[in-house]
Amino acid sequence: MTLSLGIDTGGTYTDAVIHDETRGVIAKAKALTTRHDLSIGLGEAMDAVLGASAVVPRDIGLVSISTTLATNALVEGQGGRIGLVMIGFSESDLDKAGLREAVSGDPVIFISGGHDAHGRQAAEFDRMALENAIDGLAGAVSAFAVAGYFAVRNPEHEIAACEAIRERTGLPVTASHELTAKLDGPRRALTTVLNARLISMIDRLIDAAEARMAASGLSAPLMVVRGDGSLVSAGFARSRPIETILSGPAASLVGAHHLAGEDNAIVSDIGGTTTDIAILDGSRPRIDPQGATVGGYRTMVDAVAMRTFGLGGDSEVAIDDGALKPAIRLGPRRLVPLSLLAHQHGGGIVAELDRQTRASFPVRNEGRFALRAGVPDRLAAGLSRSEADLYSRLTDTPQPLDRLLKATAELATLNRLSARGLVLIAGFTPSDAQHVLGRFTHWNGDAARQGASLFARRKDGYGNPLAPDPETISGRVVDRLIRLSAERVLETALCEDGLDGAATALSPLAQRALDRKPGIAQIALSLDRPIIGLGAGAGACYPGAGDLLATRAIIPDHADVANAVGAVVGQVRVSVSAEIVQPVEGRFEIAGQAEAAGLAFSEADAALDAAERLCGDIAAAKALEAGAGEITLSTARDLKTAEIEGRDQFVSASVTVTAGGRPATAR
Fold first, then answer.
1. Disulfide: which of 27, 114, 254, 405 matches 53 by Cβ 3.0-4.6 Å?
2. Torsion angles phi and psi, residue 543, rounded to 5
3. What distance in Å separates the CA atoms of residue 650 and residue 607, rounded to the nearest whole number?
4. Is residue 87 within 8 Å of 159, Cβ to Cβ?
């Protein structure tokens, strides 16, 4: 019997399963994700599932984690403050690929250096200028990102910069060539920035997992799910946390196929913060050839072709202020549900909500609370005076915003602290609405009802309350969640068909079809495959969404822990690529791998053969580092030629070697 422990750390819940290769899921458990100390939620989930299974910890051969923490951080605009080093780039390059927006005011250092398209040095690397610039930043950032001009053709300047930064600051540093072999410098720099921003978050997750494994007597290897559904060792994931974006969604696809047995389906996984939707074709998830898009950023990370929306059970509920009949808006920001806040912090929350409810007139920011997120103090580096002042007044105990905030302008300050991941904001969410309607019962229903009452008495454009009672407004919120879920599934399907999904899904014809409006012209739509609904809230959401889209909605057994199941049935897979360049006619060189420096060949085929051997060796070594047991190699070549004056002329060539296999397990 081969036993594995799968864990998924989501925005709200940490799920755990014990999985046997022949019997499938033999036990499962859930615990609340404790963002202030991830080890608490991880430990509770581990202990619960081990207790439910009666499995002896030493019999567990593998532990694997999937997580939505990195995805959620990018969707919500969170992450640590970083320093970006741009080698050979200019200020104008920040305006490409959304890089300036991603940097978001963090320090950027421009250093001379870089290479040309053939990997030749374009300018000398100025190490002294770099050292002078970083000396003043060591206490103001949590990590560094380094991007060099054409570093994928020659990474020597990036390597030198990383060495200097580590020597002088001791902080984590990411080089762009370590993450991708693709061209497009600004987008490569963007991917590196996001990676550096996520390092502290993934470090905390892995540290927490390893600590709880040791406490529980688990000595098995620890793996982490990447965004393409493959597995890598914990150490590998620490240095490349960007590759864990869409980790949870990728694991959910693997788990959906395993649990539902459907080869062709639309998989929609609703969590606390996001809804993640992807397509299963012939039992395999579609991979995004352009790189994962999360939080509006197009990265260079190989990942499932997943569309992630800021829509979940813990989405912020708001209205369009100023509208005569305001529509309900959900997300993209996650709030701590009031029912959960009261469950965790006791009766004081209900007492504050009761105070606000008894007030004759609504007060600004009623039904909202704030507390510190419990992150290390070093992640609060670089706060402005107003941010530092407000942050100093926050504690681990929730405070109502109507008493915490001294001026209207402080609400914007609070939102900035929330975006940095330093502060948690609590308020009315769809999860609270489900409590009011009696569909969820696991948290504090009184707090949910109070929050619904406060939201219901907000005024529309005519000066009337939004709803007469908590049940009515809660029903409208849940109906809105179902409708938006159907629209997001439809948008994804249309995008996969090559259309402008967002615009088409919101077009009058599509909206009329979803509304089932009567008329002389009857508009109908349907999908060619079922929806597999995953997540703890799937049963309350996707049957209704399936009805709107005229397709089956499948909620498989263990749909609430599909991510944790997917975490333990995948394989290690690492790819290494190299380009063949021809700087002068008749001379072929291998670009993109530092180990190939100085090698030259008179024939393209000879260069390809050498590149394949080199990439195979590197891929095999990386696969072992990533935790693979027995390794197999597969190779893909791409040689482009053009006929000129009756002769085939070299245009370009590349080779990619993929090494993979099941993870090595404890003996």
1. 27
2. -55, -40
3. 12
4. no
- What b/e string do you get for 603-613 counting C-beta neighbours within 10 Å, with b at 16 or more? ebeebbebbbe
At 391, list the tokens. Answer: 């942050």
Contact 197, 106 (CB under 8 A): no
Task: Write out the H or E segment, with its range, that includes residue 446.
Answer: helix 445-456
Q: Give yes or no for residue 507 having a pLDDT over 70.
A: yes
Which amino acid belongs to residue 21? Answer: E
Q: Which tens digits make up the pLDDT trace of 36-76?
A: 777 788 889 999 999 999 888 989 999 999 887 777 777 66
Helices and strands (DSSP H and E) totals, the chain: 21, 28
Q: What is the rounded distance in angstroms from the CA atom of residue 369 to the CA atom of residue 626? A: 42
Main-chain dihedrals φ then ψ at residue 121, nearest 5 degrees:
-60, 125
Q: In this predicted structure, what is the pLDDT of residue 446?
A: 96
Please check whether residue 449 is in contact with residue 435, taking contact to mean a CB–CB distance below 8 angstroms.
yes
Q: Which of 135-145 are b and which e, b meaning 16 or more Cβ less than 10 Å from the residue's Cβ?
A: eebeeebbbbb
Single-letter residue type at 490: L
430, 317 in Cβ contact below 8 A? yes
C-beta separation of 592 from 33 below 8 A: no
111 bridge partner residues:
87
Q: Give which of 273, 288, 278, 271 is closest to 253, Cα–Cα.
A: 278
80 to each of 74, 151, 344, 509, how far by Cα in Å? 11, 25, 26, 44
**Burial of 125 by CB count in 10 Å (0-12 exposed, 13-18 middle, 19+ buried)?**
buried
CA–CA separation, 602 and 624 (whole Å): 33
Contact yes or no for 434/536 (Cβ under 8 A): no
Task: Give the mean pLDDT of the chain.
Answer: 89
Q: Residue 242 carries which DSSP code?
A: G
CA distance 667 to 665: 6
Angle at 223 between CA 218 and CA 227, to 5 degrees: 150
